[in-house]
Description:
Shape of chain E: globular
Largest interface: C-E, 59 and 49 residues
Helix content of chain E: over 70%
CATH topology of chain C: Rossmann fold
Distance between the termini of chain C: 36 Å
CATH architecture of chain E: Orthogonal Bundle
CATH class of chain C: Alpha Beta
Largest sheet of chain C: 6 strands, mixed
Number of helices of chain C: 10
Distance between the termini of chain E: 27 Å
Largest sheet of chain E: none
CATH superfamily of chain C: P-loop containing nucleotide triphosphate hydrolases
Strand content of chain E: under 5%
Number of domains of chain C: 1
Radius of gyration of chain E: 22 Å
Number of domains of chain E: 1
Order of helices and strands of chain C: EEEHEEHEHHHHEHEHEEHH
Radius of gyration of chain C: 19 Å
Number of helices of chain E: 16
Oligomer: heteropentamer
Number of strands of chain E: 0
Structural class of chain E: mainly alpha
CATH class of chain E: Mainly Alpha
Bound molecules: adenosine-5'-triphosphate, magnesium ion
Amino acid sequence: MLSVQNLxxxxxxxxxxxxxxxxxxxxxxxxLIGANxxxxxxxxxxISGILPYGGNxxxxxxxxxxxxxxxxxxxxxxxxxxxxxxxxxxxxxxxxRLATWQRKNKAEVAKDLERVFGIFPRLxxxxxxxxxxxxxxxxxxxxxxxxxxxxxxxxLLDEPSMGLAPVLVQEIFDVLKEINQAGMTILLxxxxxxxxxxxxxxxxxxxxxxxxxxxxxxxxxENTHVRDTYLGG
Amino acid sequence: xxxxxxxxxxxQLGSIYGxxxxxxxxxxxxxxxxxxxHGDLFMVAGFLSFILAAYFKFPFLPTLLICMVVVAMMGVLxxxxxxxxxxxxxxxxxxxxxxGIGLFLExxxxxxxxxxxxxxxxxxxxxxxxGGATISYLQVLIIGLALFLMLTLDLxxxxxxxGMAMRAISWNRVVVGLMGVPVDxxxxxxxxxxxxxxxxxxxxxxxxxxxxxxxxxxxxxWQAFICAVIGxxxxxxxxxxxxxxxxxxxxxxxxxxxxxxxxxxTFTLLLVFLAFRPxxxxxxxxxEKV
Amino acid sequence: MPxxxxxxVTHYFGGLCAVSDFNLSLEKGELVGxxxxxxxxxxxxxxxxxxxxxxxxxxxxxxxxxVELVGKAPxxxxxxxxxxxxxxxxxxxxxxVLDNVRIAFYSQxxxxxxxxxxxxxxxxxxxxRIADLAMDLLATFNLEGVAEEVSKNLPYxxxxxxxxxxxxxxxxxxxxxDEPAAGMxxxxxxxxxxxxxxxREKFDLTILLxxxxxxxxMKICERIQVLDFGVTIAEGSPAQIQNNAxxxxxYLGTEGVR
Amino acid sequence: xxxAALTIPIGLNAELTGGLPVVGxxxxxxxxMAVKEVNDAGGLTVxxxxxxxKLFVEDNGYKADQSVAVQQKLITQDNxxxxxxxxxxxxxxxxxxxxxxxxxxxISPWSTNPNTTIDSKTGQPKKYVFRACxxxxxxxxxxxxxxxxxxxxxxVAILYDLGNDAFVGQSTFFKNTFTQLGGTxxxxxxxxxxxxxxxxxxxxxxxxNPDLIFLPSMYNEAPxxxxxxxxLGIKVPFLGTDGWSSQDLITLGGKDxxxxxxxxHYAPDIATPIAQKFIADYKTAYGAVPDDVAxxxxxxxxxxxxxxxxxxxxxxxxxxxxxxxxxxxxGVTGTMQFKEGxxxxxxxxxxxxxxxxxxxxxxxxxx
Amino acid sequence: MKxxxxxxxxxxxxxxxxxxxxxxxxxxxxxxxxxxxxxxSFAIPQFNIVNGYIQTIIMYVGINIILTASLNIVNGYMGExxxxxxxFMAIGAYVASLxxxxxxxxxxxxxxxxxxxxxxxxxAALVSLIVAIPSFKTRGDYLALITLAFTYIxxxxxxxxxxxxxxxxxVGIDKLTTLPWVFFWTVLSVWIMRNFxxxxxGRGVLSLREDEVASRLMSxxxxxxxxxxxALSSFxxxxxxxxxxxxxxxxxxxVFDISKSVDVLLMVYLGGIGSIGGxxxxxxxxxxxxEVLRPLGMFxxxLMPLLLVFLMIYRxxGIMGLRELRxxxxxxxxxxxxxxxxxxxxxxxxPAS
Lengths: 233, 290, 258, 367, 353
Ligand SMILES: Nc1ncnc2c1ncn2[C@@H]1O[C@H](COP(=O)(O)OP(=O)(O)OP(=O)(O)O)[C@@H](O)[C@H]1O
Ligand SMILES: Nc1ncnc2c1ncn2[C@@H]1O[C@H](COP(=O)(O)OP(=O)(O)OP(=O)(O)O)[C@@H](O)[C@H]1O
Ligand SMILES: [Mg+2]
Ligand SMILES: [Mg+2]
């Protein structure tokens, strides 16, 4: 579905991502794990068209090079950005509605809205509250909710569990599994490798801009290096 | 009659201020940019309407529409050429660029029209007499237009998808793209709307005061900026409210005391007002969660 | 005598009661954790203690060593000995690491405006003293190598360390840490744990900590207070909290701590 | 032959950009014309030698500090013998200080502020500063008398620009003279430079019920003001000052300014042969009737050339001395001669009326 | 002395890195420049080394440097957007001129002129409270409005006071501003502002620009810092105004309108925010360029803004952009890490001390 070939991302002189290649198959959850500054977000942002890059990214036969973010969304790639990226001056409802910019079918939008509120009842309570005043966890729910509203086929998630209460982390991962089963392909960037690798079919470990280990979820969980640094022994 | 006349005066002056202030607020609300070139685009619209009416003998409506379209296109062009390269730069760099663009427009027009020009009257001079006070068709038109545009804009910004996207852009431009919103296009629409409004103001102003000169954008532009901020910059209704308040203050001061004190008193009142409402009438401090 | 004593602290955002009748008592040298679901009001409590928000007056009382903090300006409270870090890192991004720390010495610089602008009197001596103190502090945090780096260019983990260093530069008695382990992987969290213990000893601190990483909370906190909807729902040792049914339901989830 | 030609450098310090571009442009036009005439005629004969005039035109941007810089530049870099300009008093006053301290002759065509030629420290006239126009006090008293005696006004209201020192002066002097003559000032209103809306002021003025409105303002402001007054139902006549004297007043004002009076430096329609030639030449060259500033600027050059001839040598001091004692110079704007030991000329003012889209001579006021 | 123990992170522009490696012998150069400059400032008018016009322009450059650097404190270092500098300049100009005209005897102006200039500065600093106090509550564009309103108020108040000339201004001010004085005041102002910026208070100002909430929580007394920054900035605006008045010999309220503020603003951002060196360059380039382009006549005013726009597009942070000229940074500041290391080596060698 998504094929990343020889991706390189640089910030001025610094190369954050160095020539990595990987693939995501339709219907999978793929985990991308790595320490702080490994280049995970850079990879994701390159796919979403926010960052210029070298190499090729092919999505369902479309070359994404030089495509603007909105065109990429149109193709069906949605991102839940790191730090959530909630629009603080918009209400919860407006945040959700904005994500449906490219959708014409009102009835489906309404259905998806109900679905989001079903998954996150807290959001329903807060529909009129400004996004900026939500707590961290509430914002994360909203961010995932927004991605659902965009109705893409491939969801890129950048550290969805950051700053969330344990119960919510569980919930979010449950939700991810659920939407995955409903047909969404997911590329998951996580620090919480434990959770991520348990839901993922495949995983990659990124260290200082390079993919160092590749494997299926269970394989990675068994890997000693992964156990030591990312799963906490 | 005296009081009624002054009230009409307030409405007319306030509406003129308001028409320009709307453009300021509009662009500010989205781009967080005080577009100091706005006053000068207003001036350009005035000259354009003069050229169309005096040389090509266009009637009012075509003149207004052409001015709106051309100036809106100029606004978009300026954004593309001068502001867009600065998307990643500090906010003030864009403000300074805007000041530069404004100065350029002034002096450029000055090259061709060093003399003030008389804009032909395009709107029938009908006046009505209400108990000794006079009000003209033009005044009614200006007041009506200001209120109409305010409501329309308010509708656009607060109740449409484009408006929502505009507000979202003001918060976080990058993430808006991830929602599938074509950011550059929305920004262009914003500038088109904002400067288009400035053009309406320019045309109406030229009709109301008939004499135009290349520097007219500065004085009235600064005043309109003040209105936009009093109302709470970025807030559409606030802009009109601020405009009427400034107009009322200026005229009331003249009414009750020697007009030499007008500026001192008006602006001191303004400072006192801001001491109590530091973010204007309808403005809110930027929500910042610590 | 407790070093920090908060009584009946209440705070509303418009109609929303973010914190209600919150009570807390910290003994000197303690390391206490506050946990609770997102939006429970934890950060708000930090903001109330440090004066960023003003607790509803009349009933609320927050005392540091018997000095009332409610109603004081944030910098006054900092001067009294409360320092904090932020949930979302708030370094002075465009300034150097050294400057970040030196700014926190603001009220410890002993020279006047006149001495500053004329380069006379205590100016040079004090500047040297502060610079050395700042460098010493950076060295203690192993940051001396990046002293002249612009802080926004530091790796995330180091930025967290720098935030703590900057807080300690204000010479606090009480340190408030808001999610210091956010975005860290387990190996890093273990290091951070050691680090927090170590600064507590080294700088003789009382620490109040908000965190969602149970790995950290359960291991280093001596006492935990659990908040939900602004109300304390449980209090006790990590072991007690881990088995508290209410907490399991509201916060930890059925799987408990992993 | 050009290399052998002797030249006399003369400076022009004008407000080509900024708030008063029309004044600057008229002044420059007249200056170029004056210089061209002389040069085309083979040059100026000074002390038996033929000189070409070399004109240095500088823009002061309608800013005081630039006016000073320009003045310095002309004097010290271009080594001019004398300077014409600046026109507006805000520029002319600081420039005059430079001229005075550098001992270089300066003639302001149009600065009517008394301070331009007076050393405010000593109260004595400046030695090197002259002007080609009458001063504000004279003009205002002419207007006041005219209002009272010719127009029969008893109750006058005043509107002026608080930010413009010339108009502030004219209003004050007008008020003094008019009340001394027994008239009543019903209302005094002000505005700030750049204002476009005067409705509040006129509404107030209307309520004070005057039978004439004294409106010392600029040619580009007066039409707007009068139109607004008419729109508010004010029907009394308006009386202006020399700020009005630009053809633009009529272009901009149209029917609204019809019938109004103002005091001016010269009357294009009853001009002397000298003036008629000037007007005709100016029209051919620039396609417009010369305004006051153009006429005064042309006269300033006329005075200067006359002084150069009289002096007999190209020397700053000599030229100055010659100018101070010029007898009855016949200029476009009338006969002039400088008061003993002063830079202010003795000359008359004219009252003009706007009739059928033209400035029409009405009466003359002798000093 | 590049310290690269850490790996992985490099900074694009580290403003401190730019003056890393600066050494003490810069001091010598600075002293030479100062002494030669001072000597020249006497010699130039004395022997007419350059003509009066160029002398005037040099003096404008000096005055503009003072104005630009002082506005940079508020707009660059503190990160506010003040539009009111002309207002403070006006106050300085009026106070000083009234003193030299009516109060101080004109005989010993050598002694009294500096007093008048200082008084002008103090007057402006005092009035700056009007702007400083609202700044406790609001910032950004609202403060921009307050400063703008302030300019209007100053102009209008002066126009309303007949005793100080009203709209007609003050004429006949003695020409006391001379090249040596301008040189002296420029050097002094730059030196004092430099000292301020590199002091505890200056760091406080910087922290306000970066993050006001964090800076209060890091014990910075933000009200004190704002107050000092505004006062210092306006003080030097007042000083510049005083010098300006005694150079022009004539002032009136129109001289200090918004366009004057805008001029200074342009110079600040041209040179670069948060950089005194930038202000010096910005003021010099802007002033000189305006004169150099004079022969272009009307086109000058079309060209200048275009140049500015291009500069902004290619160097959005101005010529210097947050960096500082090496010789303007106090030597002490440059040597912190080095000195500390040396000290540490010594201490480690004899732990007894
Ligand atoms: N805007 C930027 N300018 C310069 N360097 C950057 C920028 N953004 C990221 N970097 C650098 O690029 C590298 C990779 O960053 P990236 O954000 O992709 O890491 P990450 O794996 O997502 O880390 P984290 O877990 O902290 O989110 C880091 O060294 C970072 O310092
Ligand atoms: N400035 C504000 N205006 C309105 N509501 C606010 C504001 N700040 C916080 N809130 C609300 O108060 C509640 C408590 O917020 P707080 O930030 O204290 O939560 P928290 O416990 O720190 O959560 P998290 O663990 O997600 O950081 C939340 O519901 C939040 O939406
Ligand atoms: Mg990341
Ligand atoms: Mg929190």
